[in-house]
Model the fold of this input.
Amino acid sequence: MVPIPEHVNSLLSALRAGGFEAYPVGGCVRDSLMGRVPVDWDLCSSARPEQVQQVFQGRRMVLTGAKHGTVTVVTQAGPVEITTFRADGAYLDGRHPASVRFLPRLEEDLARRDFTINAMALGPDGAVIDLYGGRADLRARLVRCVGRADRRFHEDALRILRALRFASKLDFAIEPETARAALEDRGLLDAIARERVFSELKGVLMGPGAGRVLLAFAPVIFQVIPELAAGDGFDQKSPHHCHDVWTHSALAVDAAPFDVVTRLAMLLHDVAKPGTFFTDEKGVGHFYGHGQAGAETADGILRRLRCDNAVRQAVTALIAVHDIQPPQTERAMKRLLARMGEEQTRRLIACWRADCADRPEAVRRRNGLVIDGAERALEGVLTEAEPCFDLRALAVNGRDILALGAAEGPAVGRVLRALLDQVIEGTIPNNRTALLARAGEMIEKIQRKPHGKPSEKRGDRAGDMSAAGAG
Ligand code: ATP
Ligand code: MG
Done:
């Protein structure tokens, strides 16, 4: 018997009292049987969406999915989705079922579900309803399609990536026939909406089995990110590496913390290596500029996958600098912090560690010491009484610079950044009086410069702004 939380039980009782069948189904059953706490509880029911609405009249509901059979009831313990038993019509465009048919029976609803471990429900007595051997597959730690894998992937190719996602997340193997079909049918993924692909891909990266799954199903990954394929088997001809580019990348993902930005960065960090490769006179491989080039390629990949801007920018910023020397002094660390901010600097350190996890032992030990040095420098900076490595911590701000007579516009930021640079370099203390004096000198210099721009005319605000715009 699986314990069902109170807020879910009360919804089940209400539906049953209304004369409908209702069952917890899918991920919550799987997770409970594995001894994990389900993230959310989904219910399926014989009640149609309008009947569900009637049963829960007066309660808060979200109806955006009602057309496809899902009504979400908002309880104090969180939202619960209630989906009418249904069968999906053909996925004509590989994205949406062309139609959904509501059905009277649980059995048919379970049959449309993707994997045996996701196709179980809980009966009113708390017993598990398991028509496809889901429990046996849980015990064997297997992801297996309900029915013929090949047919299920043709209905909805996203299931190929979902199989990889569950294998990674649960650290399961993929049953051989399902695995074979996933590899063979991977071309069907081309028709799937990129945002759905990206969502599942992130899921693959965020599981404990990520590295293993990436390596075993590389052709599936290359189907959605063809730019990575050139790294497969690419010999780096370098004493710093013991694996080809793709194997190294997959192992780097595996060694990274469970942060989606860091893991995406590790997946893509060496994407430009094959393109920048050359060997020196000794036959040793080098990849000058592969960080910056990789950032550009990654930017294109992430745009195509409809990655949100914040994640895309954070990932590409890491890739661009992943091969710089880890700073060893607090001053050098402050320069890095000024450029990247604390969160990204911490991620970069995590990238450096992940990037050397699969290196030859001696390289790993040597690099590890340098990364330790960078980490000590970071802690040193952050434990200073009043660390100053960004404009927020500077003892003067934009208003102060304007009050000194500077023209409104980008010049203000330039003066502030110049002051910050000098504070970081230790040529001036982070102290108001000293900074104002230095800023005054700078502004005077700017205003004396004979650019012939209207900004030279003090007090001409509109002119100042247009000069700023032109600059
Ligand atoms: P997670 O905890 O990772 O969310 P989950 O099992 O809840 O796991 P969802 O993607 O939320 O996964 O889907 C909920 C359920 O809906 C699945 O367990 C499965 O039964 C069914 N399902 C979802 N997507 C599909 C699909 N593309 N094809 C068939 N069934 C699906
Ligand atoms: Mg879910």
Notes: The radius of gyration is 29 Å. Residues 26-27, 39, 42, 113-114, 118-119, 156, 158-159 surround adenosine-5'-triphosphate (ligand 1) (CB under 6 Å).
